[in-house]
Amino acid sequence: MNSIKMVDLYGQYQKIKHEIDEAMQRVMSESAFINGPDVKALQQELATYTGAGHVITCANGTEALQIAMMSLGLKPGDEVITSNFTFIATIEVIALLGLTPVLADVEPDTFNIDPLSVQKAITNKTKAIVPVHLFGQCANMGRLLDICRTNGLYLIEDAAQAVGSEYRFANGSRNMACTMGHFGCTSFFPSKNLGAFGDAGALFTNDEELAHKAKCIANHGASVKYHHSMVGINSRLDTLQAAILRIKLQYLDEYNTARQQAAARYDRYLGPIAGITIPYRAPYSSHVFHQYTILLENLHSRDGLHDFLQQQHIPSMMYYPVPLHLQEAYRYLPYKQGDFPVTEDLCNRVLSLPMHTELTDEQQLYICQKIKEYRG
Q1: Which of 132, 294, 358, 371 could link 86 by a cystine bridge, Cβ 3.0 to 4.6 Å?
Q2: Distance (Å, rounded) from C-alpha 216 to C-alpha 229?
Q3: In the 3-class helix/strand/coil scheme, how is 244-304 assigned residue by residue?
Q4: 3 state DSSP class of 310
Q5: Rounded distance, CA 267 to CA 328, Å?
Q6: Is the overall model pTM greater than 0.85, yes or no?
Q7: What residues does 317 pair with on adjacent strands?
């Protein structure tokens, strides 16, 4: 059995090495390293894959969020509601722009932002909601979009962990992650389901005017070279990364299916083990398993299992051990311990197991046997 990795990017690369190497060599030969032909082609192919009207690539997922908020004209002091249980980038951008971060608790089963908590957090200063499609499935977009329409709010999807996930509305219509809000934002960080060989990101929108603004902002505020119509930033996708992503996009459905099959094997092996809760699948969203995250009984059992697996040369990760409102950088916000009971509980009990496209049944069986051994 090969050594077990949290993410096996090298194994994935080996299977498409010829195609990737050929695409990289083509970019080298063309030497159009910024905004080359592959960048434009990738934007069109992402639009076709997701059904989005417009795709604007950028340097990374964090800047995708920043460009979206700038494009919507959010001003210092405007309140933006987001999930308390997520990676720091989401709240970081809100703070950097001088906006006021407002946190909402999450659902105990999906781990995604709780619409009831969002509703309670709305004030007359609220301008936008940023739901995070955590671990691979969409937040409850039907409820969240209703809240936005009722209150006249913008919605920006943070879909960095859910590219390829599909949302099913109550009326039977279906939308891909990234295509339901005013903007959808994603990251192509190497470990994502669709990952580059470095930093990369993209914005998705169905609004032509917003697309134009976002494209300008990402290019120093200019639509025509040396003519700057708005304040912008430098956030362009390298052609080399675009060429790699074009190859990998062709395999995204296959990659997501492999993750779903691996998740089903985990379910089968872990389901009978006492004290472990396997991931919940929301009825309104497909799950593409960026992470396979289990819940343990308490902090002691979670940390104990993590340490035991490490001793067995099995990696595992705690996403995320500290909620945003207890991070040192955000102590200035008017929150205290106990304000977000679900988030605080999850931070003490979640553990993510190895999940990637190259995971084998043999490896998973070994992982789960060791977990059963620890659980007694």
Answers
A1: 132
A2: 8
A3: HHHHHHCCHHHHHHHHHHHHHHHHHHHCCCCCCECCCCCCCECECCCCEEEECCCHHHHHH
A4: helix
A5: 36
A6: yes
A7: 352
Distance CA 288, CA 293 (A): 12
- Per-residue pLDDT tens for 327-339? 999 999 999 999 9
Sign of CA dihedral 36, 42, 48, 51: negative
Q: Are 129 and 102 in contact (CB under 8 A)?
A: no
Tokens of 290: 């960026």
Q: 83, 210 in Cβ contact below 8 A?
A: no
For residue 231, CA distances in Å to 59, 74, 178, 225 come to 17, 13, 25, 14
Residue 57 vs residues 20, 201, 236, 312: alpha-carbon distances, Å: 20, 6, 7, 41
- Report which residue type is found at 179: T
Coil, strand or helix at 84 = coil
Query: Do residues 355 and 259 lie in contact, with contact meaning Cβ atoms separated by under 8 Å?
Result: yes
Question: What tokens appear for 57 in the block?
Answer: 């690539």
Amino acid at 9: L
User: Average pLDDT of the chain?
Assistant: 97
The pLDDT value given to residue 376:
63
In angstroms, the CA 158 to CA 146 distance is 18
DSSP string, 103-126: EE-B-TTT-SBPHHHHHHH--TTE
* Per-residue tokens: 342: 């679900």
Residues of the chain with pLDDT under 70: 376
pLDDT for residue 324 = 98
Amino acid identity at 45:
E
- Give residues with Cβ within 8 angstroms of 338, minimum separation 6: 344
